[in-house]
């Protein structure tokens, strides 16, 4: 258990500094370029752990698995993380960190509609508390950054959809989170590279500039990388994306999925504090109220998950006991 808590601590630290590290180099890299580089590096760092998980499992790539990884990678890296990168450009790192952490809350209704998972009263309470917290942070009465808020929420919603895709893939193909992430990150990085190369075609680049999408025109791949930006790039690729997810999955192995999810429940509180000290981003009263409500909602959901897991274990134990009694009665009858 102690080892699991250490893994959670490191994963929380890396994930909580993600938006801050990106903000520090936002002016040195194109958002799409940085997205491509950090997930490519992250997939390489995750690969040894994924290979270890696949040993002796009889896993083999076929057309359906390749298509699945291409789809999940596209949803995560190309769609969700592009919204995420752009959100950090247009909004404060602390705001993006808090709103993006709500992706776990958006999973609740998606799981109900797409996975037919039961929607409990506690889940509804968690969802309501987190939504009110988001409204406090957004502050509709003084909404001055519509673009940044919208991009942050789009990143959270699409990442929640990626989580649902991951669950469906796990149920269908039987691989775990580390394999899912490693292959999806690699597939998504290659897809993003292809799109980046397309933006370099002259007529495509000219059209993107003419419609006001200059950030998506002629996107660099390696250009602009300097000695001053290399440490931040290594931190984002190796530590945040690679080791952050590695420690998260190792925490799952050492504890449980619900305990490991504490990473995303602590982040909304820790990230703004780190942003205050590193970037000087002030925590206003409405943001503080939003953090408290989101943390409350997250705690309710964690309690709900633990309660549901205990009920399932009791049901399984009851079924096994009933089966054992039935077998004993049959043997006695004979």
From TrEMBL:
Keyword Cell membrane: yes
A Pfam family the protein falls into: EamA
Record's bilayer topology term: Multi-pass membrane protein
Cellular localization per UniProt: Cell membrane
Cellular component terms (Gene Ontology): plasma membrane
All copies of domain EamA, residue ranges: 3-138, 147-299
Source taxon at top rank: Bacteria
InterPro entries cross-referenced by the UniProt entry: Diverse_Substrate_Transporter, EamA_dom, EmrE-like
Swiss-Prot/TrEMBL keywords: Cell membrane, Membrane, Transmembrane, Transmembrane helix
Sequence similarity: Belongs to the EamA transporter family.
UniProt name for this protein: Membrane protein
